[in-house]
Amino acid sequence: MKIIMRPAAGADLSFVLALYGELNPDDAPLPQEKADAVWAAISHQQGRTVLVADAEGAVAGSADCLVLPNLTRGGRAILFVENVVVAKAFQRRGVGRRLMEAVVQLGESADCYKVQLLAADDEYVHRFYESCGFLARAEGFRRYGRHDPMV
Description:
By secondary structure, the chain is of the alpha+beta class. It has helices at residues 13-23, 32-44, 95-109, 123-131, and strands at residues 3-7, 48-55, 58-68, 78-86, 114-117.
């Protein structure tokens, strides 16, 4: 299976949303108008790249990446990664590993001093990230907004 990593395009939006449906199955689908507006904002945000793993024409996985300029570490940026997901039909076929390699390459090309992500509280997920060279180095904290269903 040939896998190409590339930035998502507008035509990929419905496929990326389907992946997010697998990632967060309890979330209600976004209305198309709202999804289009959010996608437009993401597309115009400097330093933002939604990577997709294209497996012979199918969007098999995705990672949302943001290069954040930084005034410490000699002015080297940080790459934040969110919403990493591989479609169930493509799991355990190397897509996730290739996706994370592309994420790290994106960070290196932007001269980021680190790539940072939060992972689900799941031992399998932790082992996966560790196998990709990520280290559990800090304890994360979150505070959800009062209108968020996670509260």
